[in-house]
Automatic annotation (TrEMBL):
<protein>
    <submittedName>
        <fullName>Cathelicidin antimicrobial peptide</fullName>
    </submittedName>
</protein>
<dbReference type="GO" id="GO:0001530">
    <property type="term" value="F:lipopolysaccharide binding"/>
</dbReference>
<dbReference type="GO" id="GO:0005615">
    <property type="term" value="C:extracellular space"/>
</dbReference>
<comment type="similarity">
    <text>Belongs to the cathelicidin family.</text>
</comment>
<keyword id="KW-0044">Antibiotic</keyword>
<keyword id="KW-0964">Secreted</keyword>
<keyword id="KW-0929">Antimicrobial</keyword>
<dbReference type="InterPro" id="IPR046350">
    <property type="entry name" value="Cystatin_sf"/>
</dbReference>
<keyword id="KW-0732">Signal</keyword>
<dbReference type="GO" id="GO:0045087">
    <property type="term" value="P:innate immune response"/>
</dbReference>
<dbReference type="GO" id="GO:0050829">
    <property type="term" value="P:defense response to Gram-negative bacterium"/>
</dbReference>
<keyword id="KW-1015">Disulfide bond</keyword>
<dbReference type="InterPro" id="IPR001894">
    <property type="entry name" value="Cathelicidin-like"/>
</dbReference>
<dbReference type="GO" id="GO:0050830">
    <property type="term" value="P:defense response to Gram-positive bacterium"/>
</dbReference>
<feature type="signal peptide">
    <location>
        <begin position="1"/>
        <end position="29"/>
    </location>
</feature>
<dbReference type="GO" id="GO:0061844">
    <property type="term" value="P:antimicrobial humoral immune response mediated by antimicrobial peptide"/>
</dbReference>
<dbReference type="Pfam" id="PF00666">
    <property type="entry name" value="Cathelicidins"/>
</dbReference>
Length: 168
């Protein structure tokens, strides 16, 4: 008879353990998107930089095809531009406007898409063409709905001197 009394208690414990197992899910690592990983790198670069103003993502090259394993380094290429926000600001970076004639840097390297990893190997260099002269050099800017600018090569190159254009 004692076993009959214990069996409801055992059933309750089993049910309780089952419910706890459903409620407490194992901590699975989350995979970042390509864009999220790059934004995380930009934040880290801003924190480590000795420059006065923050930089914001200006252009993100498309993600290369390849291995889907988030723990394998992925190649990245992106461009950042100096903003008007000093590092002392409390504003979210997305609310910082790009600085007129601000420095533009081209960044290349690798990142890991695993959210638990903070690995990245990025090298950023200043763009040699002053950003304000991109129209003269055959470049133009495209503004996306999210307020980001993308610099692309213009299909129609404008001559630097109007009188130097070829006659038809």
């Amino acid at each position: 008879m004692e076993t009959q009394r214990d069996s409801p208690s055992l059933a309750r414990w089993s049910l309780l353990l089952l419910l706890l197992g459903l409620v407490i899910t194992p901590a699975a690592s989350r995979t970042l998107t390509y864009r999220e990983a790059v934004l995380r790198v930009v934040d880290s670069l801003n924190q480590r930089s000795s420059e006065e103003n923050f930089y914001r993502l200006l252009q993100l090259d498309s993600q290369p095809e390849g291995d889907e394993n988030p723990n394998i380094p992925k190649p990245v290429s992106f461009t950042v531009k100096e903003t008007v926000c000093p590092k002392t600001t409390q504003k979210p970076l997305e609310e910082c406007d790009f600085k007129d004639n601000g420095l533009v840097k081209r960044c290349d390297g690798t990142v890991i898409l695993d959210a638990d990893s903070s690995y990245y190997d990025i090298n950023c260099d200043e763009v040699s063409v002053p950003f304000g002269l991109e129209g003269l050099m055959g470049w133009r800017c495209i503004e996306h709905p999210m307020g980001q600018l993308t610099t692309v090569a213009s299909r129609q190159r404008k001559p630097l001197l109007p009188w130097a254009s070829p006659s038809t």
